[in-house]
Amino acid sequence: MSPRAAWRLESLGFGQIYDYVAGKADWFASGLPREGRDAGVPRVGDVAQRDVPICGPSDLIGEVRERVRAAGWDQCLVVNEERVVLGRLRGSALQADVDAPAEQIMQAGPATFRPDARLSEVTERMQDRSVTSVVVTTSDGRLVGIVVGEQTDRQTEDPASH
Q1: Is 5 helix (H, G, I), strand (E, B) or coil?
Q2: Are 59 and 89 in contact (CB under 8 A)?
Q3: What is the pLDDT of residues 57-66, one digit of tens each?
């Protein structure tokens, strides 16, 4: 839809008008609202925990570790000022030298899933690879959240798999 058409719809009282030019696949991958026969299929974006601790690349590990512990988490995502995921800190990385910057210790470029990935498929991959959590980002790398293994166990089964 053109920007002019979007403004016209807004002037007629329609709410939440989008001028989205990237395409349908990118719309879904951004975790935006879905319609249609598969709209009810659980997706990782639906269950991603959005309150995951974050830090900047120059944040010191000692400070990051304290924030992570205080929040009750065992990991932290390293993001830039636009919330693009650069890396992940967990396990022994959080036990590193307290004066080390996150960017020197982080696991760079962790694997990510888009919010529209089917929860059942991601759960299967997590089990196959013995992974306890996955990072969810938009197609441009911006953090959505983390899906933890226990979350996937509590979700309803994908009705499309029957």
Answers
A1: helix
A2: no
A3: 999 999 999 9
Q: What share of the chain is helix, strand, coil (3-state, %, to 5)?
A: 35, 20, 45
Report the amino acid identity of residue 92. S
Tell me the three state secondary structure of residue 69: helix
At 41, list the tokens. Answer: 């299929």
pTM of the entire predicted model: 0.74
Residues linked to residue 90 through DSSP beta bridges, in sequence order: 75
CA distance 66 to 33: 36
Nearest to 83 by CA among 57, 114, 108: 57
- Cα–Cα distance for residue pair 71/73, rounded to 1 Å: 6
Per the CB < 8 A criterion, the answer to whether 122 and 105 are in contact is no
